[in-house]
Specification:
513 residues; alpha/beta; Rossmann fold; Tyrosyl-Transfer RNA Synthetase; 3 domains; seven-stranded mixed β-sheet; four-stranded antiparallel β-sheet; 11 strands; globular; nucleotide-binding
Length: 513
């Protein structure tokens, strides 16, 4: 493990709940995995839902994908853990595709992210969310089969290696379905209502498909727990948050920091730590008593409940420790953990306090004992978030609006025509455009360069941008170049799809068309 400090797993489940469960508290922004709303303010995702800026981890990424370099991938949850896993060869990537229409250039972002991680050494998983398509969108199985085949062919054509990775359909994967059943024990209808807005009219199968998606997200860790990243658009974040919560609930043990024999939540522990440090911490010869911490908190903070708990503990010394809390452990696992802890320890009915472990070491020990006793040992899944592609006609790119997107199956000439007909962010006249420059940041055509057409050529993307905003590049010429590049891309991609036909037939993925 590198210098990254993964507090959300090693410290508390409370933090996971506070940051990830964000269901009803985010009143100003609703993320709907099945809706078509755009996210106007990506910064709001940082404050409302705890998504972190990807810029914070970008310097640590070896050979970053161009989507990372150009800010198309803009946010993450604990991606630093995945970077550690990539460095040691123990990481996974998974994302899924709901086969409700033809794959388009917006979907290519996720294809690219899976393939890049696979080439960095991650175990790669691509799944067809056919149960979700059937329950949430009402597609019949013939349609689903055709679309599933199209998604898989494009993923293979873009470079996914099926010999090193895993492709599957939800409906064909019994291990996923069995895991979904177990996760369903930890999930209830009220929670799904709070997160997704389900009500009394919601089909049970729709609810079941959500739990199946949770199983998909955790599936790469079934045989061996490992850091796993889920590349998604921000509208899919509710799934990630629920999966992180469920990963914690399925653990045998929870590991937290602690300072006294009584239990405290994360905010209370921070206050106790502040009192401990202010009163001299480990620098004093005499122990710091709980009642002394209560006096300090009474003078400096408004926390009457914590103060009462500390006074009730009286002269018990405050001592930093790690606490192993029994969540779902069997009696044998709990006993094994007691025996495995070296050094000074205190054993209570529902937890064990250890005084000679870091949180990191304690967490790994708990996971090791859990796995030895048939537990899951899940890491909270990480995630990265890419910006939505703007539709060619403005608004969000949508499969249901043909003019707004370019399908990966479009005739190359049609792709050429769609780009030439696309909306731009140029000025009203060529003269005004030369004077004021274009607004590349608002332009769907510039996005085509940044997200797709420039490929790994950052110089081309930068040249297009600079020439646009400086007024040197007119929209007609820009669209013509983009249209030619799009035509060439589609021709190449569809040729590779044809080459992938035989490969798909050889794989154990049922697509009966």
């Amino acid at each position: 493990m590198s210098e990254h400090d993964h507090d959300s797993e090693r410290d508390t489940d409370e933090r996971t709940t506070e940051m990830d469960s964000g269901t009803a508290e985010a009143d100003d922004l609703t993320l709907d995995p099945w809706g078509s709303a755009t996210v106007e303010d990506y910064q709001q995702l940082f404050s409302e839902f705890g998504i972190e800026s990807f810029e914070s981890v970008l310097p640590d990424v070896s050979s970053p994908h161009y989507l990372m370099r150009r800010g198309v991938i803009f946010g993450h949850r604990e991606y630093d853990r995945v970077l550690d896993g990539l460095a040691t060869g123990e990481a996974a990537v998974l994302s899924g595709f709901m086969p409700t229409g033809e794959p388009h250039i917006g979907h290519k972002l996720v294809f690219d992210e899976i393939i890049w991680h696979q080439r960095q050494g991650a175990d790669a998983y691509g799944l067809i969310a056919d149960l979700e398509a059937h329950s949430a969108r009402g597609l019949d199985w013939d349609e689903i089969d055709q679309h599933a085949r199209d998604y898989l062919l494009s993923l293979l054509a873009l470079g996914f290696d099926p010999e090193e990775g895993t492709l599957y359909r939800q409906s064909e994967n019994r291990a996923v379905q069995d895991l979904a059943f177990e996760l369903g024990i930890e999930t209830n209808a009220s929670e799904l209502q709070a997160i997704y807005g389900f009500d009394g009219e919601t089909d049970v199968s729709h609810m079941q498909s959500v739990v199946t998606q949770m199983a998909d997200i955790l599936y790469p860790q079934l045989e061996e727990p490992k850091p796993t990243v889920i590349p998604v658009g921000p509208d899919q974040d509710p799934h990630v948050r629920l999966a992180r919560d469920l990963a914690a609930r399925m653990r045998s043990f929870k590991v937290t920091k602690a300072y006294a024999s009584f239990e405290a939540d994360s905010e209370e522990r921070e206050l106790i730590e502040a009192a401990y440090e202010a009163l001299g911490g480990g620098d004093t010869k005499e122990p710091i008593r709980c009642v002394e911490a209560a006096d300090w908190i009474a003078d400096h903070r408004d926390a009457p409940d914590l103060e009462e708990s500390l006074r009730a503990a009286g002269k018990e010394p405050i001592r930093p420790r790690v606490r192993f809390l029994d969540r779902n452990a069997s009696d044998d696992a709990f006993t094994a953990l007691i025996n495995a802890i070296d050094g000074e320890k205190r054993v209570y009915e529902g937890h064990i306090d250890a005084f000679e472990y870091s949180r990191e070491a304690a967490t790994e020990l708990a996971r090791e004992i859990e796995i030895e006793h048939d537990g899951y040992g899940f890491y909270p899944p990480s995630s990265i978030y890419h910006r939505f592609m703007t539709g060619l006609t403005g608004g969000k790119m949508s499969s249901s609006v043909p003019a707004s997107h370019i399908s990966l199956l479009d005739d190359p000439e049609d792709g050429y025509d769609k780009v030439n007909a696309a909306t731009t962010a140029g000025r009203e006249t060529a003269e005004l455009h030369r004077k004021l420059g274009g607004e590349a940041d608002e332009c769907p055509v510039y996005e085509l360069y940044a997200y797709l057409l420039a490929g790994d050529d950052d110089d081309l993307a930068k040249t297009v941008y600079d020439e646009c905003v400086n007024g040197e590049r007119l929209c007609g010429d820009c669209k013509e170049q983009a249209a030619q590049l799009m035509k060439a891309f589609l021709e190449d991609h569809q040729e590779k799809r044809e080459e992938a036909e035989e490969l798909l037939e050889s794989l154990d993925v049922a697509v009966d068309v």
